[in-house]
Design a protein that fits this description.
It is a single chain. This protein is mostly beta strands. 5% of the residues lie in helices and 44% in strands. It has one helix and 29 strands. The chain has one helix spanning 2-12, and strands spanning 20-23, 27-29, 34-35, 39-42, 46-48, 53-54, 57-61, 65-67, 72-73, 75-79, 83-85, 90-91, 95-98, 102-105, 108-109, 113-115, 120-123, 126-127, 131-133, 138-141, 144-145, 149-151, 164-169, 173-174, 178-180, 187-191, 196-197, 201-202, 205-208. The chain is globular, with a radius of gyration of 17 Å.
Amino acid sequence: MRNIVIVMLLSCTLSLYCFDLSINKSITVPEGEHRAGGCTSVNGSITLEGDSHIAGTCRTVNGAIHVGSDCKLRNLQTVNGSIKVEKNTYVSHDIESVNGSVRGWGIKVRGDISTVNGRVRLENSQVMRDITTHNGHIDLSESVVEDDIIIKDNNAGDDSRHQVEITLDNNSVVKGNIINRDRDRKVIVILKNNSKAEGDLRDVELIEK
């Protein structure tokens, strides 16, 4: 139900707060371009080439988002699409994906990163608030989460819940708590190569390597 609501909300805002709208076609923002609005695509991907500055939200339904290096952005949102962000990119608000993974190399996110059915992979990155997911694994390498990692209850009402693994590698740090809110799901936290979870571990299994 939540996924349907998100899709409806995105669809309702297609003509609002964006200057680049595409249906059944992908969008490419050229290198170094600055835009006061955002980008919205339905059934198409969004590519932001290096050193792009986008003041509005970039969102897709049924498409991926690929962000080049040295960009400055507000929000990234996908439904049925992955998000990939390259080095030295700054996101001032959130990265959100439904049915898609999130991957970043050398990025800083001032807000949250959230997925419903998608993996989060970060290398040499910083997240100032939370990382949340319902069904996705989380892999951190040389990265810092300033707040919490939260596994949310997916309210499946059946036995479809798979095990979720949170891996911290290469001196990664979670400064807040790691919280499992789904009592029917097994969550494993793996600490490797001097990584640390500084807060509380709630309803998770800890493995140190």
